[in-house]
Amino acid sequence: MASSGPPTVETIAQRAGVSIASVSRVMNGHGARPDTVRRVERAAAELGYVPNAVARSLKGGRTRQITFAMQDIGNPAYVSMFREIQAVTRPLGYRLLLHSTDADAAAELGVVRSLADRTSDGLILCPIRVTDEHLTAMREAVRPIVVIGSLPEGATVDSVRADSVSGAALALRHLLESGRRRIAFINGPADTVPGRNRLLGYEKALRDAGVTPERGLTETTEFGIEAGAAAAHRLLDADPAIDSVFCANDQLALGAAHAAQDRGLDIPGDLAVIGMDDSELARASRPLLSSVDLGSAERGRIAARMLVARLEESPPPPGSPVRCETVAPRLVVRGSSSPLGVGSGIPA
Amino acid sequence: MASSGPPTVETIAQRAGVSIASVSRVMNGHGARPDTVRRVERAAAELGYVPNAVARSLKGGRTRQITFAMQDIGNPAYVSMFREIQAVTRPLGYRLLLHSTDADAAAELGVVRSLADRTSDGLILCPIRVTDEHLTAMREAVRPIVVIGSLPEGATVDSVRADSVSGAALALRHLLESGRRRIAFINGPADTVPGRNRLLGYEKALRDAGVTPERGLTETTEFGIEAGAAAAHRLLDADPAIDSVFCANDQLALGAAHAAQDRGLDIPGDLAVIGMDDSELARASRPLLSSVDLGSAERGRIAARMLVARLEESPPPPGSPVRCETVAPRLVVRGSSSPLGVGSGIPA
DNA sequence: CTGAAAGCGCTAACAC
DNA sequence: GTGTTAGCGCTTTCAG
Q1: Which of B6, B65, B86 has its CB closest to that of A100?
Q2: What PROSITE patterns does the entry give (chains A, B) (predicted)?
């Protein structure tokens, strides 16, 4: 008696002496006579029966899988998002497919298009760039998509965005209020949506304070500790009067802090440093880094909830309105931008 | 004409005026007359046909999905593994399911058991603890599993392990050779396999050097920067003569370095610090942290290759031997453990 | 409450 | 080469 392969509804049905329909009903908790339930459950337990999820998906048209795609899972901001997404979706029985696209725009488009193969029920996407091709692909997607990031007006996709303009403003205002005047900016790749927005925020906040942004005070580079250090050196070489530097993420800020310290500068005495994302790295430096929390965790949570909501609303109402939420930034002030002498974390 | 739902083989077949079998053949590149190929491809393109992966899986018995499960995707060591696993499997057409179990042993067991639902073709698992229950579950699993971590002798599961004993020895020898004598150890949770091994390695290396390990020189704590700092303070409070501290990961080491600096100690002059994993955090401190690279990336790569190999060998040869590889550790010496005055990164 | 049967979309024999 | 047909394992009418 070759029990060829794992047990199926049929195996169980035979053993329990009922029909496969009854097995299915019992497995799904759809009413059945107590006796039937008992026999099926016993047979299932004895044989270690587990329903085949693929067959279920084929029948039901839903896989209970969600895809989360972003540039780089090494980035703490995305880790926070992943955690929250998992926290929302797993209890609901969803599995999570992760795609770290390595900032490859083609790969990103591929992810959107791959929704068509019905492998996952929905997609949470953090795009680096949003081209018309992206928008078209998203509009035509067979499954709901939630974008974490900014979309052009009129886009017909749900999204949750950070407010990096306000975030930058928060940091700049803080620096200006504590008396800094020559505030440099180290940005990440500028040809991305967040990159553009952070630059906008930086310049706007300066203008609002009556200061004209100078080109020489902005550096653009890849994300990374070393890149941040190099950028800071360039900035300080060109203009030793710089008294503070705002960075587009914590890696850059940490690098900048190192560079400054290697030049013998005191932080925050000679140079204030502020990062973005408020990741673990902000607590990995001395002095501790001030940082603007753009709410990665919260954005992840909201995106997950939005997507799940779409998935539950059985027949997607054709004209149902596009949803868009914005998460407010939060400035966390630590030693790296304190007024001189306070909490610098470095013994004088 | 309600084109109810996305196109299927049938839709394409009708439009192309061929049978569904021909559509399937063309889609899978199985020979067909050039004319047939053209017509099918045209129809498919016009309708934006994408084969339903779920139906394929049901037929083929394979989902082309792999699950990777570990404690915490926030840990840089696991990020490296994930990257390498993805690099190996994606080009082969596999999707990656990620499970961050949060060190919940029950969740971990659940992952192993969930293989039974045929959702993924195989599992790469980094267990925290390996109980008999785990071993049984793994032995009975319907799908191949590769464990990244140490398994008890006689386990019938493929695995790739780090050599944390040698890794610890590497660090200790280096410290001893550079003249350190009172070497403390800050360990992570000791009731885990890696925790136990690292302690073993620490004690063995000391004994090999003719030093008797003292209980008071070892601290056990959770992983985390703050936890590392607290442990270092306890250690130094109890024994100010400690001249070096070896830590079970970079977070702990970073915390320990901060604690020492906050006490006014010079690193490496007064205290040498060595971490483990050689993660980005090692480059996030001043001085740069020495660290023992346990080969996370390589372990990930090897595990992925092992699993893929199992998946390709069509009928799993019943008696095929269990595979087990061990990755050699590598000590990366940086400023935090240099001989005094060399490369400390802090201006004297 | 239960069983028989249809069918989700696809691939792979098997005949022609 | 190509079409016909039989399932993969499950859920869900539809009768009884």
Answers
A1: B86
A2: HTH_LACI_2 (PS50932)
Q: Give the type of residue at A45.
A: A
**Superfamily of domain covering B164-293+332-337:** Response regulator (3.40.50.2300)
Question: For residue B73, which residues of chain A lie inside 8 Å, CB to CB?
Answer: 73, 79, 82-83
Chain A residues close to B117, C-beta within 8 Å: 50-53
Please give the Cα distance from B173 to B208 (Å, whole number): 9
Strand stretches in A101-243, DSSP E: 122-125, 145-148, 158-162, 183-187, 218-220
> Please, what's the b/e burial string for A99-128 (b: 16 or more CB within 10 A of its CB; e: otherwise)?
bbbebeeeebbebbbbbbbbbbbbbbbbbb
The model's pLDDT over A75-89, given as tens digits with 9 standing for 90+, comes to 999 999 999 999 999
Which residues partner with B77 through β-bridges? none
Domain ranges of chain A: 9-51, 65-162+296-328, 164-293+332-337
Chain C, protein-covered positions (CB within 7 A): 1-5, 7-13
- Distances in whole angstroms, Cα of residue B325 to Cα of each of B147, B150, B302, B306: 11, 10, 8, 10
CATH number of A65-162+296-328: 3.40.50.2300
Chain B residues lying within 8 Å of A58, measured CB to CB: 52, 54-55, 58
Indicate the pLDDT class of residue B128, thresholds 50, 70 and 90: confident
> What chain B residue is nearest to A283 in terms of C-alpha separation?
B225
Nearest to B120 by CA among A41, A64, A72: A64
Distance from CA of B207 to the nearest CA of A (A): 33
pLDDT > 90 in chain B, percent: 81
The structure tokens 């929704």 sit at A115
pTM of the complete model: 0.94
Nearest residue to B257 via CA among B249, B248, B245: B245
Q: From the C1' of C3, which residue's alpha carbon is nearest?
A: A19
Q: Is the CB of A47 under 7 A from strand D?
A: no
